[in-house]
Amino acid sequence: MTFRTVETEGPLRLVVVGAGGMGRAWTRAIQADPATELVGIADLFSAAAESAAAETGIPGLAVGADAVELARRTGADAILDATIPEAHHSVTTAALLAGIPVLGEKPVAASVAEGLSLAAAAEHTGELFMVSQSRRYHRSLFQVKRQVAALGAVGVVAVELFKAPHFGGFRDEMASPLLLDMAIHQFDMARFLLDADPVSVSCEEYNPPWSWYAGDAAATAVFAMEGGARFTFNGSWCSRGFETSWNGSWRISAERGTVLWDGDGEPDSFPQTAVADTEVDPGHEIAGSLREFTAALRFGTEPMGRVHANVMSLAMVEAAIQSAAQGRRVAIDDVLERSYEAALATERNAEVLGVLKSWPSVRDALNR
């Protein structure tokens, strides 16, 4: 599927929407990349936007409450959405309908239904909407993928994530903090490693008695993936001592051997495999996302995080939570179908609704 490229002179001009912690991380990434230029910061709270602007050290950096208005005022080429998930749909829809491409923080939206609406809006407008799954952008993860490819068919992908963060604030009160706020990273990484989408999931959530979270801060999920492989996720956000990497600790078992990765350093394989390091450096985390977004807009190359390709990672989260709540295995297609029905029922833009209605099936549409 094609999208409009940006052919302006000089660096790609960006407005960041959301002046919280992630928004400020993105402003630093933009300033550090010579191919991009920060031209404005939008936030509903003017004091937050002004504070974030002051931190950049850019004299007279434009601020405002309306992202589209600010983008037009500054001549921005694109918008970077670093707002809370509940605002992703409204911010991104407004930008796409105004003819402005968007790079958005994960998740794609607050629900799969909203993600499907955004995929349809991107189709309708011909603008690029890319979701930043920043943990894909790790040189060692790319090495893992190459080593796995040399070992034949994959049977098991297993990751363990054990941390003990004291965030404070909204995460402490969430119903499913680990699955909602963190597991999408590992779910998405598994899709990347396998080049496969999920078929079904069985999941159990629980909360150890010493947990400082109100909701379930631990979970175990087993996904059946296309091609027959199983992906297992086992994690906790209240496990002190011997903590894993934030990327998790990985084991991939294939027909001719196994690859281990601690989530930070170099991967190891048995048997030892000589794999040529011919891949282009993907960049690191959000800097890698930004680099790929810029290249996509300049050259029309397909980015990993295009909205259609990303929705399935959020579908894995919703399916896992539903499985835990219902005490049964949940088919991903059932989640997609219910989300599609919700998207049809709630879509307010007639043209976007027309695109949604034209899809032969959700999976077919997402694989375009």
Automatic annotation (TrEMBL):
The keyword Oxidoreductase applies. Residues 172-259 form the GFO/IDH/MocA-like oxidoreductase domain. It comes from the Bacteria. Residues 13-131 form the Gfo/Idh/MocA-like oxidoreductase N-terminal domain. InterPro entries: Gfo/Idh/MocA-like_OxRdtase_N, Gfo/Idh/MocA_oxidrdct_glycsds, GFO_IDH_MocA-like_dom, NAD(P)-bd_dom_sf. One of its GO terms (molecular function) is oxidoreductase activity. Pfam families: GFO_IDH_MocA, GFO_IDH_MocA_C3. Keywords: NAD, Oxidoreductase. This is Dehydrogenase. It comes from Promicromonospora soli. The lineage of its organism: Bacteria, Bacillati, Actinomycetota, Actinomycetes, Micrococcales.
